[in-house]
Structure formats: C-alpha cells, structure tokens
Amino acid sequence: MALHLRGTLLPDGVTKDLWLVGDRVTFRRPAEAAETVADGGFLLPGLVDAHTHPGLREDGGFDVDALAAHRAAGVAVLRCPGLDGPVPDAVRASPQMPRIIAAGAWLAWSGLSEHADFHTVVDDLVGAAVREVRASDGWCKVMADWDFTAAPVPLDLLRATTEAVHAEGGRIAAHCQSAAGSLNAARAGVDSIEHGMALPAEAIPLMAAHGTAYVPTLTAFGKSAPWRARRGLDRDLLWQEGHRTMLTRAREAYEAGVTVLAGTDSLPHGDIVREIEWLIEAGLPTDAALAAASWRARAWLGLPGLTEGGLADVTAYATDPRHDPTALRNPTRIILRGHITH
Ligand SMILES: [Zn+2]
To answer: How far separated are the first and last CA of the chain, in Å rounded?
Structure first.
C-alpha cells in the first residue's frame, strides 16, 4: 500500500499532498490504495549525517545498533568518511537501515610523522585513494595531516591524489586539523574538508572557488571541551581553540557560499540535531543549518529530496523547524525508504 502525506514541504514552503510508492515520491495520486500517515505540519527531506563512523563491533560484526540510533533520530543517509570494514550487503539492502555512502578506510600517507592505530598507512597515497574510490561508493578519505604542528601531506602529493580521484570520477574527503594541512587541502581542491580545527581564513575563498564543502563536526569537539578544559594539557587547549575556530570558519564559509554540512563524528550515534544546533550557534541562519543536514546535503550527495521521483525519506514536524529548531527533537513521523519507522 502507498503512503499519503499532506503538509508544508521544505524547503519550498508549499502545502501539498504527496504519495510514497515503494522508495519513490510522487505528487500524482497513485492507482493503488494509500494510507494517510501525516496530515498537516511540515515535511522535511530525510536527514543526512555527513560524517559518522558506524564501523565494526568488538565481535567483528557491523554495528547495526549505530545505524538504529541514526534511524531513530530521523537520519536517512549516512556518509561514512572512515570505516574499518565493508558494509555488509544485507545492511545496505535492508529497508530498515539508513542509506550508507561509504568512504573507505582512513588513508594515511606513510610520510606523516605520526599515525593513529585506526589509520591505514600507505606509501602510495594516489594508488590507494583510487582503489578506495572504486571499492567505497565513489569516495575516499585521506588524512591531510595528523598533528597540529607537524608537516602535513605535501601539496604536490595531495593535489596528485585529488586529480587521480577526480579522473576516476570519485570524490575525496580530507581530514584536516593543522593550518598547513587545511590550506593544502583547499589548494588541492578536495571535495570536503573535515574538521578544519586550524582552518585559516585564507582557505575559505579557495574552498568557494573549488566547490569544496566544509564539514566541521562541531558536536564531537563540543562534547570533549569540558574534560579537556579540566585536564588543560597544551594539546587540550589546542583542541578547545580548534572548536572555536571551527565555529568561526563555519559561519565565514557559509557567508562565502561554501557548502557547509552537518556531521556528528561522535558517540552516541544519532545526535544530528545537536550538530544543527551547533551550526546555528556558529551563526548560520536556522534554515541554512537545517539545509546542512537535509536538502542541501542530499543534493550534494546526489540524493533527491521531496521532488517528483525523489527518494522516500521524510520526517514530519508539527511546527516549522526553520523557525523553531526545537521541533527537530519531536518528529511526528519518520519515514525511511518508504517505510514508517516512527
Ligand atoms: Zn571522523
């Protein structure tokens, strides 16, 4: 049976009837019977978390509980720039699970002076990135640096990697925490800069020119701020300063026309509303912060929203979340891939 909804569609603000037939949106009443599951209120294209790591459990299985937490929050799409294993076909195929865009392992060039234990360390960054693009939904994740002060991946290497990925038709996400690493990523024209804790202001116009998105992941850093302040090591102070810088750059990037996206990068999973709130605190208009986790993120990932033939991910709210973001914590209906989950 088809699902029927009537409400004010976002972002257009037009009140309409729409139907979900299987995993598709239509504005033409279908021949088959339809159950009305939302009448009135506001209908938002399903939410997107552009930076999260559902990953593997300790027993080696894929963490479906993490996906369930995202689903419960109304998140219909996950981009995962950094996964420690492949997404099982059964998870991808399940209509109960959010759509997943994998971006493969955390690729770290062996020439960086430090590495984390979760990095996949490679000598040939270009070749590894291209292989990852082929294996991971057209994306790869590269560490542009891994220290606040040490030398980042050299610009020539990062540029060659980006060009090879683009030649393959893929996209490249760059972890950036130093000023030099962030600037190299912006100069190389990567597709997204993740974190950017020391993102220099001069990188913003380069990002705008290259179409590089900014995913600041403010929730993760906001969560650690209190205990870092208590501990107070030099490194903790850099992280705190990094959080303040990300807030400033998120607003500047938005004002410069850069696509700013919501990514939680934190546990417990499913805190996308907190990331929207952080983007509002950073100074984005409320509808832009909402777009960062919904229609703009979907368009950036090539996933249509509430348009004819679009994908059947919808969250409904009693009040307009563009004016009342607290509504986001109280969805009246969540539909994922054409299936009611709330
Ligand atoms: Zn991350």
So the answer is: 17
